Amino acid sequence: KAGVTQTPRYLIKTRGQQVTLSCSPISGHRSVSWYQQTPGQGLQFLFEYFSETQRNKGNFPGRFSGRQFSNSRSEMNVSTLELGDSALYLCASSDRGPLTGELFFGEGSRLTVL
Amino acid sequence: DQQVKQNSPSLSVQEGRISILNCDYTNSMFDYFLWYKKYPAEGPTFLISISSIKDKNEDGRFTVFLNKSAKHLSLHIVPSQPGDSAVYFCAGTQGGSEKLVFGKGTKLTVNP
After folding, report:
1. Tens-of-pLDDT digits for all 114 residues of chain A?
2. Over the stretch B95-112, which tens digit does the pLDDT of each residue have?
3. 3-state secondary structure chain A
4. Phi/psi at B82 (nearest 5 deg)?
């Protein structure tokens, strides 16, 4: 079974631009979550989608948004980029089996904002 | 407000010895705790978990202990191997949610 696939793996943007990151979950997984990892804040929850609906949202400004498609693939978008948005963005999927909270993470998209 | 704290940024142990990684939490609503391991340039991978109704869970060389009264959990790795060298994250969640609250991680180095 293929794992969680994130694209692009690396990207560089400048302040004020916007970026879209893509995530393909493990086949059969219907829940997709997004996390931001920075050296100072660690791993922080952005949002979670299930069956195209956002079910949970973290404490991030409205510049961070996401969506999920009918095939469970998900995208997240960050508008009006700031230097502090430089981070590793991780996507995770789960099959919503037993309520264990176990997530399967992709390798991440590393965003650098100049 | 940091709900999950890993107070040791790094830990170094000798191969074959025990590694003990600690984690404290403040949110008493957490009912499930997980440990993830992360190698450089890879996403975190699930290691072991424990429900708040238990005080111990074991999987091979890995054991997680939960002390609810102290709001403390620990991960024991016995025996430690060089391949265990990675960053270990502790996380808590509530109601089986995919919203995990992570600690900032502890970098474990196992020396041959």
Report:
1. 679 999 999 999 999 999 999 999 999 999 999 999 998 888 999 999 998 999 889 999 999 999 999 999 999 999 999 999 999 999 999 986 555 668 999 999 999 999
2. 777 889 999 999 999 999
3. CCCCEEECCEEEECCCCCEEEEEECCCCCCEEEEEEEECCCEEEEEEEEECCEEEEECCCCCCEEEEECCCCCEEEEECCCCHHHCEEEEEEEECCCCCCCCCEECCCEEEEEC
4. -55, -35
Measured between CB atoms, which of B34, B44, B100 is closest to A45?
B100
Q: What is the pLDDT of residue B99?
A: 87
Which residues from chain B sit within 8 angstroms of residue A90, using beta carbons? 43-44
Percent of chain B with pLDDT over 90: 88
| Chain B contact probe: residue of A102, A105, A109, A110 with most B CBs at under 10 A | A102
* B chain contacts of residue A33, beta-carbon cutoff 8 Å: 98-99
**Average of per-residue pLDDT across B17-29:** 96
Q: Name the nearest CA neighbour of B100 among A106, A103, A88, A21.
A: A103
Query: Alpha-carbon distance A101 to A68, whole Å?
Result: 19
Across the A:B interface, residue pairs with CB atoms under 8 Å apart total 68
- Give the three-state DSSP class for B24: strand
In B, which residues are within 8 Å of A108 by CB distance? 43
Nearest CB to B98: which of A56, A98, A107?
A: A56
